[in-house]
């Protein structure tokens, strides 16, 4: 497996701190499903499939965490709590409410992992490049 920080064209695979800050600011301003999904990934490091499986019952405002079922271990029932800013939990609660998915087991994003990857790629392009004005190409 290739663990390089650069892709085959020699471009960075990651965001700089400035780009990350601009991306997060643009995602918060978006007030959309794309913004909420992008913020979840940015603040938690969750896998796309873990973020897609997120339900309102996994948002713990009291402890300031989001609880994800860990999919990496390939066993059901293994969870991890990830600390996040209060603003993210509030943003996600609004998204769940607007999508009318406040039932305990209703996922916030009703799509598959492949569609989630495409959704995230488009979100990153739209949010990042509008937010920080950089012209670097990411693939």
Overview of this protein structure:
The chain has a single domain, classed as Intergrase catalytic core (hpI Integrase, Chain A), CATH 1.10.443. It contains five helices and three strands. A three-stranded antiparallel β-sheet has the order 1-2-3. The two termini are 18 Å apart. It has 139 residues and is mostly helical. Residues 131-139 have low confidence and may be disordered. Helix 1 (17-30) runs antiparallel to helix 2 (33-44), helix 1 (17-30) packs across helix 5 and helix 2 (33-44) packs across helix 5 (113-132). Helix content is 46%, strand content 9%.
Keywords:
139 residues, mainly alpha, hpI Integrase, Chain A, 5 helices, 3 strands, 46% helix, globular, disordered C terminus
Q: Tell me the count of domains.
A: 1
What would the principal axes of the Cα set say about the shape?
Answer: globular
Q: Can you tell me the CATH topology?
A: hpI Integrase, Chain A
Task: Tell me how many strands there are.
Answer: 3
Strand count, sense and barrel status of the largest sheet are: 3 strands, antiparallel
Order of helices and strands: HHHEEEHH
At the first level of CATH, the class is Mainly Alpha
CATH superfamily: Intergrase catalytic core
Poorly predicted segments: 131-139
| Widest sheet: strand ordering | 1-2-3
Instruction: Label the structural class.
Output: mainly alpha
Radius of gyration: 15 Å
Number of helices: 5
CA-CA gap between termini: 18 Å
Percentage of residues in helical conformation: 40-55%
Q: Indicate the mean pLDDT.
A: 75
């Amino acid at each position: 497996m290739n663990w390089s920080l650069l892709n085959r064209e020699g471009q960075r695979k990651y965001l700089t701190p400035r780009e990350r800050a601009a991306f997060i600011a643009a995602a918060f301003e978006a007030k959309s499903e794309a913004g909420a999904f992008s913020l979840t990934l940015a603040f938690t490091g969750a896998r796309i499939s873990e973020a897609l499986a997120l339900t309102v019952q996994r948002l713990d405002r009291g402890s300031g965490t989001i609880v994800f079922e860990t999919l990496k271990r390939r066993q059901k029932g293994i969870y991890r709590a990830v600390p996040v800013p209060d603003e993210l939990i509030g943003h996600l609660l609004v998204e769940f409410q607007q999508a009318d998915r406040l039932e305990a087991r209703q996922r916030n994003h009703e799509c598959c992992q492949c569609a989630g990857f495409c959704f995230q790629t488009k979100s990153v392009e739209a949010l990042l490049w509008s937010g920080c004005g950089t012209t670097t190409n990411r693939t």
